[in-house]
Structures are given as C-alpha cells and as structure tokens.
C-alpha cells in the first residue's frame, strides 16, 4: 500500500500537536495492530484532524490516504475487508454518515463486512464550518441501515476501548466521535461492551440518558440538581444500536421522567430509539427528547452553539428542571 502526503490544513496539524484527544483513535488502532490484527486505516485527506497521522507514522504500509473521495474510500474499505483486512476509515461525520450513505448500505452493511467507519467532528462541533459540515442527522441515517452497529463514545478513552472491543465484533460499525477536545469522563483502560449502557446513577425523580459528548454535560447537570435535593440519575448509552433495552426500562421504572440528550436532531436519534423501547413496553413514563429540534443548526463557535441549544451543563440542567417542575405541578 502507498501513502501520500495530505493537504490537510496547517491549522489542524497545529491542533494535533497540542490536542492529545486526537491520539485516542490511533491508540486503539496501534493496540489492535500490535495484537496481530490485520488493521488498515484510511482517511479522506483529514489525518491531522482525526489524529490518524499517528497511526500512519507508526505503520505507513497500513495507511491509505484517499484524498477528498469519501464514497470511494468506503467502497475501497469494503474491498479491503473481502481480502481479510480489518479496515478503519475516517472522515467528517457529515460526509461519512450522509454523503456515503449508499456505499455504507450496499457495499458494507448489505454484505455484512467488518468495516469500521469513523465519523468525527459530529453534531455541531465544526462550528463556523456551517450546515454542510454539521452532522445532526447521521444517527437516524445509520441506525436505519440493517446490520450496522452504531456507537457514540463519550470521550477518547471510551473510543479506544470500543475500538479494541471491535476486534471480535462481527458486524460493521459506525463510530460517531467528537473533535478531540471532549472533556474526559472515563479513565484509560475502562472496559467497553457493545450493546451495554453504563449506569452512572439512578434517580427517582428523573433519569438522563445521554450519548457522546453530551454525557459530561449531563453529569454536570445531574450533580447540580442532586445538590439541590432532587434525585437525578445519568445513564451513558454509547451503543445506540443495538440499544440496551433493559437499561432503558430500568431507568423508566425508577423515575417518572426520562430525559434523552443528544447532539443530534431529536427525530430519529437516541431519543427516538428510547421512545421505541418505551412505547413497545407500554410504560407510563414520560419521555422528553432534548437535542436539535428539527432545524438546521446555526453557524458559530462550538461552545456558543452548545449554549444556544442547551447542550452544555447549564442548559441540560435548565431542561431537566423544567420537567421536574412540571411533574410537581401535575402532582398537586
């Protein structure tokens, strides 16, 4: 295999030099390679923005620079999988989960090939790059594709753990990850199990089910509310498909309100997946879906966008408190 120089911007090269969060993807791939797995990695001209340059430096013969040809990259990854390789290919989530939908469906998922698709800079994390680069529909797109596992790690260590765990996972996987600046929630070497939620706490008033970069903010919100005397729990749902149904039903059985939080359109994402479980089970628990409310996101710095859409700790706290107040009023 050959590997060529990327035209990835100097800004991302500089960012990679100071942002250790970008190392976690390569850490996982290097660990798999050192364990003897036939890993091949590829990127669509973005190895400095996703940190794959670290893997390319360690294993130049196992890295392919595809250039700005995302659809070709996905199809090529399917071809590599048929030859016995374990391909991991990465690009912006807006391109991978949306532009490459047909290639993911027909070349990867339909054929049940063990391709690992890494959609990075998810949600609104690309800020000023605008709507064309924001990925607020990729969960709904990918979870509707038969045979495709959908995973949204909360931070770098969980991403590395999920990548290591993927060595024995037979289905293709879509990993939905942030921009490498996500606050760390988990310690390194924290184990990961596909299809299993991580219960941080269970509340009797309200339980928050979060995924991806919203988990840290959800934990902040819950801590603030619990300090005020409420009973608010937090469940991390890193695997959106297959969803941990038992964890959802347990959360609903303990509290009168379940609040889902995601950096995604509320239609078709984590909230919709949880709604399906609750509706099928016939629970009487109220569900509130919080995220992007079926609109094209604004253009601004990521931090400002998280505040605007109430996806930071203070915003999630405000949304949860509103529901707690509503429940109190209805009980009178």
Automatic annotation (TrEMBL):
Cofactor(s), names only, from the UniProt record: thiamine diphosphate
Keyword list, A-Z: Thiamine pyrophosphate
Protein's name in the database: Transketolase
Keyword Plastid: no
UniProt-listed Pfam families: Transket_pyr, Transketolase_C
Transmembrane segments: none
Similarity annotation: Belongs to the transketolase family.
Keyword ATP-binding on entry: no
Organism encoding this protein: Bordetella genomosp. 1
Superkingdom assignment: Bacteria
UniProt-listed SUPFAM superfamilies: Thiamin diphosphate-binding fold (THDP-binding) (SSF52518), TK C-terminal domain-like (SSF52922)
Domain Transketolase-like pyrimidine-binding: start-end pairs: 19-184
């Amino acid at each position: 295999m050959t590997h060529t120089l990327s035209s990835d911007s100097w800004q991302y090269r500089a960012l990679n030099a100071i942002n250790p969060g970008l190392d976690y993807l390569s850490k996982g791939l290097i660990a798999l390679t050192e364990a003897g797995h036939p890993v091949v990695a590829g990127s669509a001209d973005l190895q400095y923005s996703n940190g794959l340059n670290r893997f390319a430096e360690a294993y130049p013969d196992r890295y392919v620079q595809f250039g700005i040809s995302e659809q070709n990259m996905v199809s090529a990854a399917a071809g590599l999988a048929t030859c016995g390789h374990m391909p991991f290919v990465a690009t912006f989530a807006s391109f991978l989960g949306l532009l490459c939908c047909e290639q993911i469906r027909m070349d990867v998922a339909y054929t049940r090939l063990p391709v690992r698709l890494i959609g990075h800079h998810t949600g609104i994390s690309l800020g000023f790059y605008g709507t064309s680069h924001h990925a607020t529909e990729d969960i709904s797109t990918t979870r509707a594709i038969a045979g495709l596992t959908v995973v949204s790690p909360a931070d770098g260590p969980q991403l590395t753990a999920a990548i290591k765990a993927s060595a024995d996972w037979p289905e293709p996987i879509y990993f939905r990850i942030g921009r490498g600046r996500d606050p760390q929630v988990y310690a390194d070497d924290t184990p990961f199990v596909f299809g299993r939620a991580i219960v941080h706490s269970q509340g009797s008033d309200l339980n928050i089910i979060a995924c991806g970069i919203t988990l840290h903010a959800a934990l902040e919100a819950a801590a603030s509310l619990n300090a005020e005397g409420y009973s608010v729990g937090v469940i991390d749902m890193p695997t959106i498909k297959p969803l941990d149904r038992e964890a959802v039903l347990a959360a609903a059985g303990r509290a009168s309100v379940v609040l889902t939080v995601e950096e995604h359109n509320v239609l078709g994402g984590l909230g919709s997946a949880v709604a399906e479980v609750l509706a099928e089970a016939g629970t009487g628990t109220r569900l509130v879906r919080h995220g992007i409310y079926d609109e094209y996101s604004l253009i601004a710095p990521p931090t400002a966008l998280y505040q605007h859409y109430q996806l930071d700790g203070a915003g999630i706290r405000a949304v949860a408190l509103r529901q707690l107040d509503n429940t109190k009023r209805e009980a009178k």
